[in-house]
């Protein structure tokens, strides 16, 4: 939930009743002492002899905006948020521990630019809207900068070092992708020092989900040459919507300092997750009313049944080499392979009227995706006369394959009412199988140059050159559609001005292309492969970071090709979507007890130059969002910290036709953490209550879809560091 801890410097964790405390302690018995991995200070992207001095802020002094924290920017390399000419957000491991998220929307609870569209216990758990645009589950999510398909996948947040959000277009940085942005999950790495890391914790979620987790890390060999980090989680129990969940996750990170200049890395993440009694999706495609039915609790079991389920499997394997060519140059080579699979039996409720009647259509089948990436890059600095250049250039080859069910089922199985238990059942076949439905290949060259013109002025230019090819196939293996284009250029340019060593002004321009959509099962043209869409982004912003306060602001305009379902329920590309607005935020520490922060976004959106919907607000884009948080360190009880956060989301159009909207709503969350020592060990207790007021509200989920918002939930956690 919130940033209440701030006291204990440790990474988050979870595992379950079946991974007993005794087993966790046995795993950690080989370690001699506890230590926390401290991230090295972020390297400046500008050389010291030409730039204003870098201001370093320690973790204890940093604000919750973390502007000195490094953020991955794909082909731009890694820079601090302060040095990145785009809007970004970083959520740290400590904040993840305090928020105890069970879906991605919880992670960004205090970011006004991010609206939650997810449901923790169905295939929509990672759906987010950023600046009014939904993230692309095919290319908008990375793990350690490497691609994976996120549809239906809820990551083990307790095993992450941080979560990064790069807002807006990312065409140069990551290749083809929707303009909402990119979420990058950063896994825990081996500690830099030889002091080991070891902890276990146990947690509880409403209405009966238990988790346990172990985190082990250290270095072995001469001078700590070999490093390791192991995280294991188990989760199991009864969910708040009368379903059940069981999850087992393990991740490992290894590194080897082979020589003074050569380092090798390996990473793996494996997760198996089973959820039954999942909540079905509510479609308004057949709804004739002008206002949604009265709200209902997301904790109801009326929209689920024991036959409905979502079973997912995620595997990710990465390997890399890093070689220091000299004092100013580094060569990187990396490879990743990810595989995700889904077996789901899930209803879509086609809402008919304001009384809540619906027709129940069920999907049952299997799906899967594979993504592989080879990438080499070089990063360094050179001088040409009075100018200092920070250069990044490289090449990448990425292949994505999508598998869908050859014998999956989608059809109406009955009727019902959203306020009454769903009596329809469909067990389906047990022999579902998949076929290769489509594949996408990208071959890219990229290069960027950040030129330091004076002590204060710098300019950035980057370009990605991509050969793109996409195919669609029938269940018999025949090619049904092909789209290819060589020499696709996606540039980015930026101008940056250091108003002071702590303050950066910037203006940037980015172009991007997003992969053509394979139309989903609920539309009349299901299975059709649409062409890629081009987007453009203009942004002007400011970031300032000080020891006790920080602030950011950005003006942006995004032009994107529009896609929506027309009156015949055909998903089509038509016209353009315009998003323009402002976002700003700030954080301040008052004395030694108080931390206050706020964030807001105002956005004006509309459809243009299409056959329909011109002038309407874009579906899914709330006009106004405001968020705030406050934490208080209780002086009379050392180690105790309490806090609250609130977020108001304005009215949101559900349809491109703008004749139906989800009303605005306010959510209030509270929590506390208490850090102490028991029997010589560091122990931290955490409690969090989300939706304290138990507000009932409709949440926009996808164009023409809504879902009841989460009910009031309680999370508890106890952690011990050895």
Automatic annotation (TrEMBL):
GO terms for cellular component: cell outer membrane. One of its GO terms (molecular function) is siderophore uptake transmembrane transporter activity. Keywords: Cell outer membrane, Ion transport, Iron, Iron transport, Membrane, Receptor, Signal, TonB box, Transmembrane, Transmembrane beta strand, Transport. Residues 81-182 form the TonB-dependent receptor plug domain. InterPro entries: Beta-barrel_TonB, Beta-barrel_TonB_sf, Plug_dom, Plug_dom_sf, TonB-dep_rcpt-like, TonB_rcpt_CS, TonB_sidphr_rcpt. The keyword Transport applies. It is a multi-pass membrane protein. One of its GO terms (biological process) is siderophore transport. Residues 288-692 form the TonB-dependent receptor-like beta-barrel domain. This is Ferrichrome receptor FcuA. It comes from Paraburkholderia phenoliruptrix. The gene is fcuA.
């Amino acid at each position: 939930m919130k940033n209440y801890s701030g006291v204990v410097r440790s990474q988050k964790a979870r595992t379950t009743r079946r991974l007993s405390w005794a087993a966790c302690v046995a795993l950690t018995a080989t370690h001699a002492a506890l230590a926390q991995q401290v991230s090295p200070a972020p390297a400046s992207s500008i050389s010291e002899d030409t730039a204003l001095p870098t201001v370093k802020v320690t973790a204890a002094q940093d604000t919750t905006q973390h502007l000195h924290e490094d953020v991955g920017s794909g082909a731009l390399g890694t820079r601090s948020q302060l040095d990145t000419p785009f809007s970004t957000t970083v959520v740290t491991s400590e904040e993840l521990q305090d928020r105890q998220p069970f879906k991605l929307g919880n992670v960004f609870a205090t970011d006004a630019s991010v609206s939650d569209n997810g449901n923790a216990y169905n295939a929509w758990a990672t759906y987010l809207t950023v600046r009014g645009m939904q993230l692309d589950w095919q290319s908008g999510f990375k793990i350690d900068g490497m691609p994976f398909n996120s549809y239906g996948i809820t990551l083990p947040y307790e095993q992450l070092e941080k979560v990064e959000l790069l807002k807006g277009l990312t065409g140069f940085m990551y290749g083809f992708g929707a303009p909402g942005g990119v979420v990058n999950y950063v896994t825990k790495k081996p500690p830099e020092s030889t002091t080991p890391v070891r902890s276990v914790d146990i947690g509880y979620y409403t209405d009966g989900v238990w988790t346990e987790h172990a985190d082990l890390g250290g270095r072995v060999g001469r001078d700590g040459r070999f490093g390791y980090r192991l995280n294991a989680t188990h989760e199991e129990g009864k969910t708040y919507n009368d379903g059940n969940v069981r999850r087992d996750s393990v991740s490992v990170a290894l590194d080897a300092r082979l020589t003074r200049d050569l380092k090798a890395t390996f990473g793996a993440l494996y997760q198996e997750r089973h959820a039954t009694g999942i909540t079905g999706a509510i479609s308004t495609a057949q709804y004739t009313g002008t206002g949604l039915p009265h709200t209902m609790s997301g904790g109801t079991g009326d929209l689920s049944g024991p036959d409905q389920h979502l079973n997912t499997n995620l595997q990710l394997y990465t390997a890399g080499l890093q070689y220091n060519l000299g004092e100013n140059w580094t060569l990187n080579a990396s490879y990743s392979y990810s595989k995700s699979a889904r077996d789901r039996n899930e209803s879509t409720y086609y809402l008919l009227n304001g009384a809540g009647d619906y027709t129940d259509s069920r999907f049952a089948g299997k799906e899967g995706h594979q993504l592989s990436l080879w990438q080499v890059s070089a990063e360094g600095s050179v001088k040409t006369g009075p100018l200092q250049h920070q250069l990044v250039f490289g090449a990448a080859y990425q292949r994505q394959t999508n598998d869908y069910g050859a014998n999956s089922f989608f059809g109406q199985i009955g009727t019902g009412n959203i306020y009454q238990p769903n009596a329809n059942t469909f067990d389906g076949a047990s022999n579902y199988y998949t076929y290769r439905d489509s594949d996408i290949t990208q071959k890219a060259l990229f290069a960027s140059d950040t030129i330091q013109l004076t002590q204060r002025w710098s300019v950035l230019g980057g370009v990605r050159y991509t050969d793109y090819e996409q195919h669609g196939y029938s269940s018999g293996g025949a090619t049904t559609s092909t789209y290819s284009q060589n020499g696709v250029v996606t540039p980015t340019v930026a101008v940056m001005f250091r108003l002071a060593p702590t303050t950066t002004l910037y203006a940037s321009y980015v172009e991007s292309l997003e992969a053509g959509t394979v139309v989903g099962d609920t539309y009349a043209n299901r299975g059709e492969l649409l062409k890629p869409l081009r987007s453009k982004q203009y942004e002007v912003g400011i970031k300032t970071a000080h020891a006790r306060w920080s602030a950011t602001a950005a003006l942006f305009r995004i032009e994107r090709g529009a896609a929506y379902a027309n009156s015949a329920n055909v998903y089509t590309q038509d016209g353009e979507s315009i998003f323009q607005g402002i976002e700003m935020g700030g954080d301040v520490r008052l004395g030694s007890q108080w931390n206050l922060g706020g964030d807001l976004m105002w956005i004006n959106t509309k459809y243009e130059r299409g056959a329909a919907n011109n002038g309407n607000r874009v579906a899914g884009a709330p006009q106004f969002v405001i968020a705030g948080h406050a934490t208080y360190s209780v002086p009379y009880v050392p180690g105790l910290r309490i806090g609250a956060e609130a977020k108001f989301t304005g009215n949101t159009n559900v349809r491109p036709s703008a004749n139906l909207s989800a009303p605005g709503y306010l959510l209030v969350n509270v929590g506390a953490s208490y850090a102490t020592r028991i029997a010589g060990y560091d122990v931290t207790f955490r409690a969090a209550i989300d939706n304290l007021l138990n507000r009932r509200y409709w949440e926009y989920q996808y164009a023409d879809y809504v879902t009841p918002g989460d009910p009031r939930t309680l999370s508890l956690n106890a952690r011990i560091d050895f």
